[in-house]
Amino acid sequence: MSSEQPLVLGIETSCDETGVGIVRGETLLVDAVASSVDDHARFGGVVPEVASRAHLEEMVPTIERACREAGVQLRDLDAISVTSGPGLAGSLMVGVASAKALALSLGIPLYGVNHLASHVAVDIVEHGPLPEPTMALLVSGGHSSLLLVPDVTCDIRSLGSTIDDAAGEAFDKVARVLGLPFPGGPHIDRMARDGQVTIDFPRGLTTGRDMERYRFDFSFSGLKTAVSRWVQAKEVAGEPVPVADVAASFQEAVVDVLTRKAVLACREQGAENLQIGGGVAANSRLRAMAQSRCDAAGIELRVPRPGLCTDNGAMVAALGAQMVLKGRDASRLDLPADSSMPVTQIQN
């Protein structure tokens, strides 16, 4: 192995995507994903048992496809990296067991890494080394977190997180109220482009004592309820529901809170860089408002392309490669699948 350019394969199975990525140093060679989202759509959300079975079926074909597209053999690999948490327990077990088998059979190091830390690390293969420190806003179906990241391989500090519904979860639930398909984020984003922000929905934890106690925390449960009640009132009155306007107004409320708190955190922590990751980072309005507010505050914004914001193996490989490059110890082969792994624990 060239110590400067380790070849690392990453496996991601925290939810419903079977992701396999291969990174050489800080260069992404391939990002192969097999999604089971269509299998869950008819249920209106991810079904853990369905997701686990899909990972079992897709793991070997996805690894084979990734190696073929990258033009590498398994014997060429220097290390294996795998999401060991947080996520759905059954799904994580499939990925962790697969990674253990590969690492043991190939005689190479195994790195069990944190899913959220991987969302931060993936920007390295898109925009180069992370400034230290970086402020990271991670927004997805299960997480809304503000993190100060002095070193993505060993030092991540949580400033705030969701106290109820995550942003992506709220998108899914509001989409259901509006009769839009699952997953809700992309559909609300598209619908909102044809709507106007005409409804003043609440911005949770942004005023008064809430800002003292929950300065960098998020709450979207009240917003979700407000949208549902507004729509129900229209339906009871026999009036048409302006779906595009509701979508635009709801989206604006979410994005306003996320970007406002992220920029405030940058200012108070002295961070000159903000990175946004997670599935909701693909939202066009979030990207636009974040760019505008960062420009006004003199903060550099880094957002990976949409395909690298959703769950993928590239992000796990990227973090694994950083572990190798910085000389971090490998994980033990008996590492667990930890469904509640805290974001401050970067490695198992």
Portion in strands: 15-25%
- Count of beta strands: 10
**Count of separate DSSP helical elements:** 13
Estimate the mean pLDDT confidence: 94
Structural class: alpha/beta
The strand order across the widest sheet is 3-2-1-4-5
Say what oligomer this is: single chain
How much is the radius of gyration in Å?
20 Å
Instruction: Write down the secondary-structure element order.
Output: EEEHHEHEHHEEEHHHHHEHEHH
Low-confidence stretches: none
Shape: globular
User: Strand count, sense and closure of the main sheet?
Assistant: 5 strands, mixed
What helical percentage do the residues reach? 40-55%
User: Distance between the terminal alpha carbons, to the nearest Å?
Assistant: 24 Å
Core attributes:
348 residues, alpha/beta, 5-stranded mixed β-sheet, 18% strand
Description:
45% of the residues lie in helices and 18% in strands. It contains 13 helices and 10 strands. The chain has helices at residues 37-41, 48-70, 89-106, 115-121, 123-127, 167-177, 184-192, 208-213, 221-236, 243-269, 284-297, 306-309, 313-325, and strands spanning 7-12, 17-24, 27-35, 79-85, 110-114, 134-139, 144-151, 155-161, 273-277, 300-302. Helix 4 packs across helix 13 (313-325) and helix 6 packs parallel to helix 9 (221-236). It is globular and about 65 Å long.
